[in-house]
Amino acid sequence: MHAAFQVRRAVRLGVPCCVLVRSPLDAVASTLVMDRERVSDDACYLSYIRFHRRVAPVLDHLVVCRFEEVVDDPSVVVERLNGRFGTSFATEPVTREEEDSMLAAIRRRRPKRVGLPEFLAAVPSEEKEARKDQLRARLAGNPLLREAEAAYRAVAGAGRP
């Protein structure tokens, strides 16, 4: 989960900052899977809404990237930071082989090292996607979804190049 305090502090200190945003249905489903549903749907939605509302007033002082953009091309973060703040952060392209190797290493190490189920690794998996699909069906009926979608649009719209 993100903390709006960190974003607002970066803005206050003049530190280049990027906020990664994801649609509420996907973000909340993912959070519930990773947290093994120990938090209620409403609590996840309210946290999501609160974050976006607290970040919205400082949008003119940061960069916003949508989750899908970053998954497709992580260099978008560096490009936007450099464009907005006049920085010269560098990015190196990652080959498909390097990406596959990194994902495999994460799958192997993280969950097993701490005794957690493999689907809790921070990489895509069929089991995780199936769990998220089940949750999305339930989450779509939550009355807080509309409010979360409005909060998302207010922030994600700032990320359009």
How would you describe the overall organization of this protein?
This protein has one domain. The chain contains 8 helices and 2 strands. The radius of gyration is 17 Å and the shape is globular. By secondary structure, it is mostly helical. α2 (24-34) crosses α3, α2 (24-34) crosses α7 and α3 runs parallel beside α8 (144-156). A two-stranded parallel ribbon has the order 1-2. It has helices at 4-13, 24-34, 41-55, 67-72, 75-85, 96-114, 126-139, 144-156, and strands at 18-21, 63-66. The model has no long low-confidence stretch (mean pLDDT 88). The two termini are 25 Å apart. 61% of the residues lie in helices and 5% in strands.
Largest sheet data: 2 strands, parallel
Kindly report the average pLDDT value: 88
Radius of gyration: 17 Å
Number of helices: 8
Task: Please state the oligomeric state of the protein chains shown.
Answer: single chain
Shape: globular
Query: What's the order of the H and E elements?
Result: HEHHEHHHHH
Our estimate of the beta-strand percent is under 5%
Helix content: 55-70%
Uncertain stretches of 5 or more adjacent residues: none
Work out the count of structural domains: 1
Structural class: mainly alpha
Amino- and carboxy-terminal Cα gap: 25 Å
In the sheet with the most strands, the strands line up as 1-2
Summary?
The chain has 161 residues and is mainly α. 61% of the residues lie in helices and 5% in strands. α2 packs across α3 and α3 (41-55) runs parallel beside α8.
